[in-house]
Structure formats: structure tokens, C-alpha cells
Specification:
By secondary structure, the protein is of the alpha/beta class. It contains 14 helices and 27 strands.
């Protein structure tokens, strides 16, 4: 008898097709095209067979340049069936950056689509194939004419180990160069199991995917749905009006969103149908005002804190917890240990420090081999936060958000939170800019109907003098990464390079 600790020993779609072949697996949001696990299993087999003919190498890596679409799920499980690694690359990046990432992952094959064929050709460096042509079976659930027309395959699923690297995903790189994160089959399965314990699972569940599928938030629902035997509904791009219709028309019961997406849905008048069980809200801090709007609209919001390095969720709050404890991301998921540490050691309840995570969802490491982020208590996230006596976690910013101005330490997240409390401010980001006199000066990029002078006056009434931003600029929006987090380097560049609309007080 096999040791159950070794499970799964073959890809999740093969397991699921054996258990519940007639359940719906994937749904194309726009067309409504749906495939069962039996049909998805056949498509995975055909794609795996074609990949096997093109990558004659053990432990091969297949990189992708694909926007969000159902075919991404088919490719994920096809590589899993072969025992290969999938490396989804960000289609929003330039060719030079992508060439460096393709080289870093040592890709044996690059998969593109019609909209990314030109970019893939510019990246080069390895053979390129298309899901519209050579891998057409991958598009079995995409809802496009001719999908799934490829010849059938006959691939024996590879014998898998929980320690096998299944994914390489690059971090967003909001404050440093993106790093290639290795995620094992064990990481993915542990994350999916832990998520189910927090959110629950029903046989009729349908998880809407409208986040980029080159980030973990967009990929995780494919893994979870195959493990649970539920369906993933895939929308190619988020749009507040269209997404409302998809949620209603495709019987969606859960969705992953970033705060900007949820705000736009609410601005468009969205009230969730009764079938919606959860709105998993991550990718950045959810302000108290947004959570209050969810309470007023009966949105079952579940603020979550996660990272690529932990295969998605670390802690998640159920709606009742989010409404009762303003600003919390809840308690850690099962199997996950969260320790808050300072320079001396673990912190007590209410004491702020760096958040450190350990458990089976944590990556075994970066492709670069950088081990500096791993210590006695696990993976050092670089995030600052605290836990209360009941274990609820609050995330308050980044270690590298600390601004030192005139010898005083300023917490950028604290300043941003004060600015966001201004009645007509929609969003704000605070960074430190080089300053000859002060070393650094506090600077803020603000979204809303407000003047820089009003922002500074408001802060002066609530913060120490050295915390008040010396530079304030009002903008239409904050620059964000494709995963929805604030791009702090872009904020810093905008504040440094463009003084139009900026007021400065020394």
C-alpha cells in the first residue's frame, strides 16, 4: 500500500476524471462553453502527447505567454501529466525582460496564442508553439471555433512526488527585481486543502477566474477546482459590467478579486446574487471603507493575505470576522504557522514586527538560490504586522517601506492610512524620496478630489511633524502591477520625475 503522504502520485485531472468524470470542469465565461472532467482529461492527454513530442528532455520546463483563458488550465495539467514544470510569463512585460526570465527558467518550449505570437517571436531562445495551431486541444474550453480538434493522445501519467517542482512564477517585483519562485505539487495541494477548510466546498461551486493567470491568484482556482471536483469559470479580462453578468449568468459561487476590482464592481451597483458564497479579496490592503461597503451590500467578502512564495493564501478572514475586526486578514490557514518577529525574537500579541511564515505551502526556494529570506521561523515575508490575543493578523506595510527622514523613522503605511481616511481621498501611496537635507523626504501620491495643501494640513493635525508628506501629488490612479498591488517603484519614479501638479513644503 502506498504511503498517503506521497499523494498525489499522478496529475489532478487524471485523478478527478476517474472519480467524477461527468462533473463540469471548465467554463468559458463569455460563450458559456463548458467541458466535463472526462473531456478535459482527453484534452490534457492530447496536449501532453504533443508537448512530449517537442520536449525530449527529463524535467523539462514549458514557459507560456498567454493572457487569462481556459487553455491555461489545460496546459497546467498537461505539464503535470508529463512531470514537467510550467512557467507562466507576464504578457505585460517587455521582450527584453521576458528574454531574461525565459533564460532564468531554462525553458525548453514557449507557448503563445494569437495575441502574443509576435511577442513570443521577439523573446525567442527556444521553440515556440501556439495554442491555436500546434496545441489546439488546449483550447477545448475556450469557446472558440475549432477548439479541441487536435488528435488524441495516449500518455501514461508521470509518477509524481510532492517535492516535484510544478510551477515557477515570478514575483511582482514591486520593491525589487522579480524572483522566480519554485512551487511544488505538495505546495499547491496543501494550499488548496487549507483553502477549502477556510472557505468550504460545495459540489455545485463555480470559481470565477478573472485575475491574470501568470500569477498565483489566477492559477490557484484551477488547482483547487480539480482537487475539489468543482468548476472554474474563466473570464478573459475583468470588466465591472461584464463581470456582474458573468457572475449571475454562469452561476458563480466564488470569485478572487483585488480591491480595485471590487471597488469598481460596487461603483457599478453590484449586489451579489444569493448563490455567491465568498469574494476572496487579496493582492493588496483592503481599506475599512471598502469592507464597510461590503457589509452594506451583503457582499460575503473574505480579506486574504497571501504571497507567491506560499502558493497563495496565508491567512483569510471570513466575512463575519472581517466585519467585526476592522482591517484584519483573519487567522492563518490550517497547516500554516505565522510568527511575528522583531530584532530580539517572536513578538507578543499587539506587538509589531516582520511576518514570518512556515508550513507545507511555503516554497522550497528561489531559482536564484537566494536563501536570505529563510530563517529560524520560516520564510521572512518582508511584511510588517501584528497578531492579537486570538491570533487575528493585521498587515501594515513592508519592512522596506520604512522612511528615515532627518534621523526619524517613518512608517509609510501609517501615513498612507491617515491620508486614506480623508473623506474625498480614494487611494494613496507613500514612499521616501532622496533629499539632500533630510536624507529622505516623505512623499505621497494621492487619488481623489483633494488638493495637496489639504492633504498636508489633514496630516499635520494627526501625525508628527516629521511624518507629514513634504511632497504631495494628486493623480487619477495609482500605478499597479498586473496582480493589483501598488507598484512602489513606479510611484517613486512618478513623484521624482514629474513635478507637474505637485506641491512641496519644506
Amino acid at each position: 500500500m502506498r504511503d498517503p503522504v506521497d499523494w498525489p502520485t499522478k496529475d489532478l485531472v487524471a485523478c478527478r476524471a476517474n472519480a467524477t468524470p461527468d462533473r463540469t470542469a471548465l467554463v468559458a465565461a463569455e460563450s458559456g462553453t463548458a467541458v466535463t472532467y472526462r473531456e478535459l482529461d482527453a484534452a490534457v492527454d492530447a496536449v501532453a502527447a504533443e508537448l512530449d513530442r517537442r520536449i525530449d528532455a527529463p524535467d523539462a520546463t514549458v514557459a507560456t505567454l498567454l493572457p487569462t483563458r481556459p487553455a491555461v488550465g489545460t496546459l497546467l495539467f498537461a505539464t503535470m501529466r508529463l512531470g514537467a514544470t510550467l512557467a507562466p510569463l507576464n504578457v505585460e512585460l517587455d521582450a527584453e525582460t521576458l528574454r531574461a526570465q525565459r533564460s532564468t527558467v531554462e525553458a525548453d518550449l514557449l507557448v503563445c496564442g494569437d495575441t502574443t505570437a509576435s511577442l513570443a517571436a521577439d523573446v525567442g531562445g527556444c521553440p515556440v508553439v501556439s495554442v491555436e495551431e500546434e496545441l489546439s486541444a488546449a483550447a477545448v474550453a475556450d469557446g472558440t471555433a475549432g477548439s479541441g480538434s487536435a488528435a488524441e493522445g495516449d500518455v501514461t501519467p508521470a509518477a509524481l512526488s510532492r517535492t516535484d517542482t510544478q510551477l515557477v512564477i515570478f514575483t511582482s517585483g514591486t520593491t525589487s527585481e522579480p524572483k522566480g519562485v519554485r512551487l511544488t505539487i505538495g505546495n499547491l495541494v496543501a494550499s488548496a486543502v487549507a483553502s477549502s477548510y477556510r472557505l468550504g466546498v460545495l459540489p455545485t461551486d463555480r470559481w470565477l477566474v478573472c485575475l491574470p493567470t501568470y500569477h498565483m491568484g489566477g492559477l490557484a482556482p484551477f488547482v483547487r477546482s480539480a482537487l475539489y471536483g468543482t468548476a472554474a469559470v474563466v473570464q478573459r479580462s475583468f470588466d465591472a459590467e461584464a463581470t456582474q453578468r458573468v457572475i449571475a449568468d454562469r452561476s458563480v459561487t466564488g470569485v478572487s478579486l483585488v480591491p480595485t476590482m471590487l471597488s469598481r464592481l460596487l461603483d457599478a451597483g453590484w449586489e451579489p446574487p444569493s448563490a455567491v458564497r465568498f469574494v476572496l479579496l487579496g493582492g493588496g490592503p483592503a481599506g475599512e471603507a471598502l469592507i464597510e461597503r461590503c457589509r452594506e451590500r451583503d457582499v460575503p467578502v473574505c480579506p486574504t493575505y497571501g504571497m507567491t512564495e506560499t502558493a497563495s493564501q496565508i491567512a483569510t478572514a471570513r466575512p463575519e470576522t472581517a466585519f467585526e475586526h476592522a482591517g484584519t486578514v483573519g487567522q492563518p490557514l490550517v497547516f500554516t504557522d505565522v510568527t511575528v518577529v522583531d530584532d530580539v525574537g517572536p513578538c507578543g500579541p499587539g506587538e509589531r514586527g516582520e511576518i514570518v511564515v512556515d508550513g507545507p505551502t511555503v516554497t522550497p526556494g528561489y531559482l536564484s538560490g537566494d536563501g536570505a529570506a529563510f530563517g529560524d521561523h520560516g520564510f521572512r515575508t518582508g511584511d510588517i504586522g501584528y497578531r492579537d490575543a486570538d491570533g487575528h493578523l493585521w498587515v501594515e506595510g513592508r519592512v522596506d517601506d520604512r522612511i528615515v527622514t532627518g534621523g526619524e523613522n517613518v512608517d509609510a503605511s501609517t501615513v498612507a492610512a491617515v491620508i486614506q481616511d480623508y473623506p474625498t481621498v480614494e487611494d494613496a501611496a507613500v514612499v521616501g524620496l532622496p533629499d539632500e537635507e533630510w536624507g529622505q523626504r516623505v512623499a505621497a501620491l494621492v487619488v481623489g478630489d483633494v488638493t495637496p495643501a489639504a492633504v498636508r494640513e489633514y496630516c499635520a493635525e494627526r501625525l508628527a511633524a516629521y511624518e507629514v508628506p513634504k511632497t504631495v501629488r494628486v493623480a487619477d490612479s495609482l500605478p499597479r502591477t498586473p496582480s493589483g498591488t501598488v507598484d512602489r517603484e513606479a510611484v517613486r519614479s512618478r513623484l521624482s520625475a514629474d513635478d507637474s501638479g505637485t506641491e512641496r513644503s519644506e
